[in-house]
Hints:
Strand order of the largest sheet: 1-9-8-7-6-5-4-3-2
Helix content: 10-25%
Oligomer: single chain
Number of helices: 3
Strand content: 15-25%
Number of strands: 9
Mean pLDDT: 80
Amino acid sequence: MGKTLVAIAAAxxxxxxxxxxxxxxxxxxxxxxxxxxxxxxxxxKAAPPAGPTPRTADGKVILDGExxxxxxxxxxxIGITEPAAKLEDVPFLPWAKAVYxxxxxxxxxxxxxxxxxxxxxxxxxxxxxxxxxxxxxxxxYIFDIGGPHTYRxxxxxxxxxxxxxxxxxxxxxxxxWEGDTLVVDTVGYSxxxxxxxxxxxxxxxxxxxxxxxxxxxxxxxxxxxxxDPGAYxxxxxxxxxxxxxxxxxxxxxxxxxxxxxxxxxxxxxxxxSRSSPIVP
Length: 280
């Protein structure tokens, strides 16, 4: 009887060790997922080493995809709710800081109501963007996939900014190539969007310089300089990387303006009144 109990105890102990080892191995495997280059912001299995930067026959960098006829979209490599710049580096004017703090509690973002967003916010969605360059007409287009499903035009024909321009959410963008880097200079922004998904504010004095450098097949290094004396004490820099999602392209996306998830958009409010509109 005693030997039987000992045998049972030994079997239980062995099973516990095997189970614990199996759980530990599974946990390590799960932790390994999400550290690599899976699609949609770093989740999934680790990506294989990236290939070289795709180029045209004359050596020019391709942002569109890889080759003519082979499409891809670009998604952020950071969490989409992270700020576009380190907050300790943002030289807020007092009113701008107060607006930013309020937006952390009341996330009434225009983008969630199907409005387009310029600067860094355009790239901070889980659906990504698609670049399309048309050298024959001197244009670069950046198409949004999710949200408002709109697009931004970058004039690549050597023109400057107009003297009189009606502000809009994308502003007026002119671009040129500096080696392997696309440089985009934009003014003429409206105040009707957030600079990033966390809620950096701005005024119509906003002037941005964006730099897009495709460092390999899977990566665009996005750098942003923000100059807005109406909201910040001095210019500051931000940016993040974009990841290439191969063999994907634009798809139909319906943005529901009359959605019923009001409780997700009223922040500190305790109720939703349909008697008056909620204006972001």
